[in-house]
Write a structure and sequence with these properties.
- By secondary structure, the chain is α+β, with helices and mostly antiparallel strands.
- The chain contains 7 helices and 22 strands.
- The strands form 5 sheets. It has a 9-stranded mixed sheet, with helices on both faces. Strands 10, 15, 17, 20 and 22 form a 5-stranded antiparallel sheet that branches.
- Strand 18 and strand 19 form a beta hairpin.
- It binds zinc ion.
Amino acid sequence: MQKSIERIADDSEGHSYEFPVFRFEGTDKAAPSAYLQAALHAGELPGVVAIDALMPMLEKAEAEGRIKGSITVVPQANPIGRAQYHFGEHQGRFHLGTRTNFNRGFPLLAAPDVELLPDTTLGTADQRLKTRLLQLSIGHDIVLDLHCDDEGLAYLYVHARLWPAMADCAAAMGVDAVILWDEDTDGTFEGASITPYLNLPAEVARFDRRVATTVEYRGILDVDGALAGADAEGLYRLLVARGVVQDQALSTPGSFTGLVAPLENIDMMPAPRAGAVLYKVKPGDRVAEGALLATIVHAPGEAGGRTQLFAPQAGIILTRRSRRIIRAGEDLLKLVGDRKSADARSGTLED
Ligand SMILES: [Zn+2]
């Protein structure tokens, strides 16, 4: 395993950012290769500790000559976001300098060719970081971008072209749900990882062996040793199932039995009022149409000071907020409905 340090110049003199990259060289050129990164949203750490638990498994496999395909690992992909604090609160989701989401604005290339990447020398530091991360990942057959939600189940975003071919990956990882999407106009990292292949001939795109996904490892507070160990085993099982790592002791994953739904089935449930949120449901709950989801206390102690919110359709609660303070219009939770949402939002991932 080789460790190297990436450096990203900041926008002013005398300052730069750095992050480590770990590379395992595969012994079989025909085997699929894999790229894993975590904490692109810099405060989302479940994937970071999962990678920490995965590394000894990969090093053991390497020592035993079982790494078949090359593996690139970036445990902390966003040193810019990592350093951003505002009045004592960490801000890892948006670049403070440009107000751009760190998981938006990746270049959507016409083909998987690093020569097509834009020159960001005179761009901003976050653009240079995005270009470099894409450059590091392009060419790998398997690209895993590890995130987490606010409070939520473990779930994957997957492009519809990769489903159901990726069902073995979802089963190997043991996630609860898979959300399918089909168009990225915002430039998420996942979108930038799969879009270059969409217009290639099938024999070049190789969707049967391609993996690109945003992994949502539950909630922001689910940074836990036992979960990290289980998630590392899930990642390892995926790498074995896809032939990146060889391990005779592991059986092939069974069929995926979790929830699979198109993105258009998600109801985001904006809060009708500002106030304190009393949730009636939690991630994983199955709700009927008309079920009480939450009560917002907007005028405490007054008659009519509470507003209730009901499920617009039957479905499963995928996520909810970790904080209980809300403004009108902010999203209360994600409900994966049994059918298309009446107010399905355009766009792609809401990670
Ligand atoms: Zn994220």
